[in-house]
Amino acid sequence: MNGFALWRRYARASLSGQTRYPGAFLMQMAGHLATTLMGFAAIWVLFHRFGTVRGWTVGQVALFYGLVNIEFALTETIGYGFERFGDDFLRTGAFDRLLLRPRWTVLQLLGHQFRLRPLARLAQGAAILALGLAMTPVRPLLFTLPMMLWAIAGGVAFFLGVLIGQAALSFRTIESLEIVNVLTYGGVEAGQYPFDLYARWFRQLMTYAIPLGAVSYEPMLAILGRSPHPMAATLAPAAGFAFLAIMLLYWQAAVRRHASTGN
Amino acid sequence: MPPSPARIVVEDLRKSYRVATRPPVGPAGLAAWLPSRRPWRTIAALRGVTFTIEPGTITGLIGPNGAGKSTVIKILSGILRPESGRVTVGGLVPWAQRLRHVGRIGVVFGQRSQLWWDLPVDDGFALLRDIYRVPPTLYRARRARLVETLRLADFLDQPVRQLSLGQRMRAELAAALLHAPPLLILDEPTIGLDAPSKLAIRAFIRDLNRQDGTTILLTTHDMHDIEALAERVIVIGDGRVLADSPFETLRATTLSGRRLIASFDGPPPTLTLPEGVSRLPATGQTLALDFDPARIAAPDLIQLLTQAGGTAGTAPLADVTITRPSIEDVISRFYEHHASSP
Question: Are B225 and B195 in contact (CB under 8 A)?
Fold first, then answer.
C-alpha cells in the first residue's frame, strides 16, 4: 500500500474514533464556528463605520480573510500530529512507536489524527470568501479559480511547514513550543488583512523570511488585478512549498539527532 | 550465502548519554537555560557490549535497572544509534537501514502499548497490515492463527483502552507478529500480569519459537520467565556483559542455591555454620542463611537450627521459609564475582 493510500486508511480510522460521540462532536463544531465568526463580525463593524480602510473595501478584506482561514483550517485537519508532537509523542515516549514501524515518520504523524473540528473554520472561511467574491470585482473565473486553488495549496504547505518546524524544535525542549503559535495563529491573524496596512519591515519579514505573504497577500493581489508584478504574484505560492521542503529537511536532521542523543 | 534473517551480531557496542543537570531554582535557573550555560553530565550506558545470537534461539537479557538492557534493546530496534561498535541484524544495520530493518522485526514493550488506544483491536490489526504491507491472504491466515492461539476472539471488537492488562498483552503480541517477523524482541513482556496470564504468554512464546523458528530476545525481571523460556542468558550490568552462558550452567551454579530465613521467639542462637552454608546480615529475631542443597540438605539444616534454638539463653525456632535466589541476588553475585576477578 502506497503512502497516500495508507494515509487515507489512517484518516478513516481516526474519523471512526471522532464520530463515536456525535452529540459532543456537533456541539464542539458549533462552539468553534461561533468563536471564529465573532472575528469577522468585528471587521464588518469596523468597515461599516468607516466604509473603506486605506482604499480597501470590506469585500476585498473578506477575500484575504477567507483565503488564509481556509489554508489554516485545512492544515489543522492534517497537521495535528505535528502540533501536538512535543506533548503527545516526545514526552510520552510514543515517538519510539513510530520509529518501530516501517514507514516515514512524517506520514505516520500526518495520519495520527484527521481532525474534523477545523471544518468549522473551513466552512466559515469558505463562506466569507464567497461573500467577498460576490461583493468584489475580480479577474475572470478561469484565472481566479485555479489561482485560488494554487494559493490554498501553497498556504497549506506553508502552515504545515510551520507545524513541522515546531515539532522539530520540540526535540530540544521536549514540550510543544507555544511561541510558534505566533506564526500559526498569529499568521492567520496577520494574513486576514491586506499586507500594505502593515509597516514595511513587518511586510517584508512576512513575505521573504517567512513566506506568509507569498501564499495569501500576493496571490490575492493577482486575483484582484492589483499586483504591481502580476507574474511574480502568480508564482508566489511556490514559496510555501519551498518553505515546507526546508522544514522537512530540518525535521529529518532533528530525528537523526534524536536517535544519537537518546531520550 | 546471504546472512540468515535473524542472526544478531553485536560487537563492542558503546553508548553514553548527555544528561542535563537540574538547573537551580530562581533567576539563576533561567540563566542555566542558555545553551552555553547548561551544565551537562555524561553517563556511560554501554561500555563495550559484545554478543552473537543465532537464529531460532531464545535468549534472555537480564540485569538490574539502569544496567543498559533497554539501551541494547533500543539499538537493536533501530530507535537509537550507538556511539561506536558494530551491529547487524540479519545483515542490516538497524539505525542506518531503519525502514527495512523494522519491517523484519516485532517488538513488544510490556510497559508501553503499540496499539491504538481508541480503536477496536481488530481495526488496529488491519491498520498494521497496511503499515507492514502484509498481503491479504497471508494476513488472513496469520490473523486467524494468532486470534486462536492467543484467545483474542472475545475482545477483538473492543477498543484497546477497555482491555485488561492480560488481554492487552496478548493483543500486543499478536500485533507484533502479524507481519511474521523472524525476530521478536520482548521488553518485560510479563510485567504486572497475574499468574495465569504469565503462564499463557510463556507458553505462547515457547510454541512460537518451536513451530515458526522465530528468534526471541527478551528482557525480564522475573526469574520464572527465564527458567521457562531462555536457553541462554546474557547478564548485563554496568554497561558490560557480566555473564553469557547456557541456562543449564546458570541453573547448576548460581541458581542452585537456596536461602533459608529462620525466625525465633527471641534472640537467635549463635551457630558454627556447617560446610556450604553462609550467613547473611539479618536483624532482630531472624537468621538468614544461604546454602547449597548439594552439600547440605534442607531438612538437616532445619534440624540443626531446631537443636541450637533454646540453648544457652537463646529462643527456640519458631518458623522457617526457604526461597530461591531472586534475579537481583543472582546479579549481585555476578557483580561480586566480576569485582573479585577483574
Answer: no
Cβ pair A96:B71 closer than 8 A: no
Backbone dihedral region of B70: left (phi > 0), alpha (psi from -120 to 50 degrees) or beta? Answer: alpha
Q: Which three cell numbers stand for residue B309?
A: 534454638
Question: A254 to chain B, minimum CA–CA distance in Å?
Answer: 13
> Residue B43 forms beta bridges with which residues?
B17
Q: What torsion do the CA atoms of A153, A156, A159, A160 make, to the nearest 10 degrees?
A: -110
Nearest to A103 among B71, B123, B131 (CB): B131
| Strands B215-219 and B183-187, bridge-based pairing | parallel
For the residues A22-42, what does the mean pLDDT come to? 78
pLDDT in tens, B24-79: 666 666 665 565 556 677 888 899 999 999 999 999 998 887 788 889 999 999 99
The complex's ipTM works out to 0.82
Q: Pick from A6, A99, A104: which is nearest to B130 by CB?
A: A6
Nearest CA in chain A to B106: A100
Asked whether A129 and A63 are in contact (CB, 8 A), the reply is yes
Measured between CA atoms, the residue of chain B closest to residue A20 is B118
Nearest CB partner across the interface for A260, out of B81, B102, B103: B81
pLDDT cut 90: percent of chain B above it: 47
B199 vs B152: CA distance, rounded Å: 16
CATH T-level assignment (fold) for domain B8-252: Rossmann fold (3.40.50)
Pairing type for strands B277-280 and B317-323 reads unpaired
With beta carbons under 8 A apart, name residues in chain B contacting A104.
99
User: Across the interface, do B130 and A1 touch by the CB < 8 Å criterion?
Assistant: yes
> Which residue does chain B place closest to A261, by CA atoms?
B17
- pLDDT (tens digit per residue) in B126-136: 999 999 999 99
Domains of chain B, by residue range, sit at 8-252, 258-323
Picking from B102, B119, B127, the nearest residue to A102 by CB comes out as B102
